[in-house]
User: Fold this.
Amino acid sequence: MKLREIAHSRTGDKGNTSNISVIAYDAKHYPLLVEQLTAERVKSHFAGVVEGDVVRYELPNIDALNFVMTNTLGGGVTRSLALDAHGKSLSSALLDLEITMPSNVRQSGD
Amino acid sequence: MMRTIRIGSGAGYSGDRIEPALELAEKGDIQYLVFECLGERTVALAQQARTKNPELGYDPLLEERMHAVLPLCAAKRIKIVTNMGAANPEAAARKTAEIAKSLGLPPLKVAAIIGDDVLDACKKGDYPFLEFDGTIKKLGNRLLSANAYLGARPMAEALFQGADVVITGRASDPALFLAPMLHAFDWPMDDWNLLGQGTVAGHLLECAGQITGGYFSDPGYKDIPDLARLGFPIGEVGKDGSLAITKVAGSGGAVTAQTCREQLLYEVHDPQKYFQPDVVADFSKVRIEEIAKDRVRVSGGRGSRRTDTLKVSVGYLDSFIGEGQISYAGPGALARGRLALEIVRERLKLTGVAATELRFDLIGVDSLHGPQVSDRAGEPYEVRIRVAGRTESLREATRIGNEVETLYTNGPAGGGGAWKSARDVVAIASVLLPRELAKPEVRFVEV
Assistant:
């Protein structure tokens, strides 16, 4: 299933760095995010967009991950040639990732 | 001394809607109304405006916003705090006092905070940029402005001295909200946990509608009612730092745990180290709970000692950008769009346009996330091509849009709606300045 089914997301910008939060709708899905949404996977999903590193922060209190992606905004929001200089639309691309739902998680929710 | 205050957030950026602030003043039962209107590069642009006219250089919507809210705020003794001063807080304060007088209001005490302009101090040192290799000195005559992110204390000082309206230039956005808390509760400036929790409140409120359902709706997944009448948020803060986020009953939008979670991480990097002028805030232990409809409790913000430096936004003339767009539709639209991009690519080479960076987009296909992320996109009914390039002069930038426009008569079939632009790029980079080099001051204007 798509990440969009179990999580929501928001993008923020600072200079040439973009951050994308991924927040589980339901706390029981947070461990899945931690397990499957690695920084490496996010970096490869954004091939051609993220030129720098991806660092992941975990926020178990609010069932959220925060991905910080450097060298991502065309040299910086204030000078970028991009149509979406802020990268505000990036969160929607992340929600397109595939998540594998283990059968025990699915059952416990139904 | 008050035990609880209600702070309204009246704008989340310079061009934001006008009437939600009026609704807050009218029905929000607020004691403070904050307007955050100063984007990263706005001070640099405002500085250019001030150079041309010494009475300008403040926010272009200041007059409209003040006309709208001053009568109610004066009647209800609601204090206004804003960074609409941009590059000229004193002129903004004079204009505000004039407006109050022209509206026939009782005399208001309007304070300007100055001292964020640290251009001279920056010129004396040779501070390295945080974003790329290089120093301020190397910018030479391309340097336009340098403004330090001031903390909450000078604004709180103005409130302590009786200001009804406080107008600052560059200050940290959360500090605009922290100032009313310092004023109401007189928190010590070394109680890092309280300042951290106050920063959480300010951070959540500073983008106004972004916590009441704006920048959030995704039909079928995240539905928000009545975005055309989006209500702006109210932060209810207690002396002990307790915080509830809410909005005016009956306004559009929604305040939920989800909207608050998204906004908590907005523009945050390491959640344990959110650097502010007054504190290094820690968001990592924050708890968010819905306690009623459109009412969310936020607790657990903490903090540690502030750093010895202030972040400074340096504005400089970076380059020029030229751009052109044209649309194709119907069967074969995508192929004609791709052909058009190839033609422009070759023309820019043939005619020797001196661009240091070029970008070729298919709007509707790959313009937002590039060809790799977008490779599963299907054939659209219509496509708009976009070519953008960076140059060292306006003249060269103009040639880029021209090469797109000439596709009308020289390019693929059925190209319509061509558009072009060329502009200079004022960009922002940051340096860290020893904090004692910024000397903020409160100045009251006489009406």
User: Anything to note?
Assistant: The domain at 317-429 of chain B is CATH 3.30.70.100 (Alpha-Beta Plaits). The two ends of chain B are 29 Å apart (CA to CA). Chain B touches chain A through 53 residues (CB under 8 Å).
